[in-house]
Amino acid sequence: MQKIYRNKMQVGAPGLVYDSTPHVINSRAVEGDDMLFGIGVVAGSVPGETVAVGDGQFEGITVNTWVKEHELGGPVSIREAGTISVMQWGRVWARLVPGSEPVYGDPVHVVSTGENAGLFSNTGGTVIEGARFYGGNNGDDLAPVELR
Q1: pTM here?
Q2: Which own/partner pairs from 127-136 qualify as long-range (CB within 8 Å, at least 24 positions apart)?
C-alpha cells in the first residue's frame, strides 16, 4: 500500500526527463525483450520505427513517460514489440556503467555489447556526437545526459 505521496517526480529515476527545457521524444517499437528505461538504443531492423540495444546508428535514450503498466518485484521494462519513448534531443537521467564518475561537460560514451550494453560512461564504448554529461553520478549509477 502506498503511504508516501509527493508533489513532484522523484529526482534521478532512470529515463526520467531531467528538466523542462525543450526536447524531442519519439515513439519506437522495442526489438528484444525487457528494454529498460534510461539506456542508449540504436535504430532497429526498421529504422525510424524500431530500436534495439547494440551496435548501430544511435537513436537516443529510452524515456520513462510514466504511462506504462508497471510490474512489482523488479526493474520496470518494456517487452518485445511494445512501444517505448526515445529522447533524441534534450536532457534525461541515464543509467551508468557501475562505478563510472562522469562530471559536467564530459563526453558521453555508450557501451554496445556485454552485460553493460546500453549503459553510459565518460570513457570506453562509442562516443555519442553532440552529447555531454549534464552532471555527475547521483550515487545510484545515474547521471543527467544532454543530447544535442
Answers
A1: 0.88
A2: 128/40, 128/58, 131/107, 132/104, 132/105, 132/106, 132/107, 132/108, 133/102, 133/103, 133/104, 133/105, 133/106, 133/107, 133/108, 134/18, 134/91, 134/104, 135/104, 136/101, 136/102, 136/103, 136/104
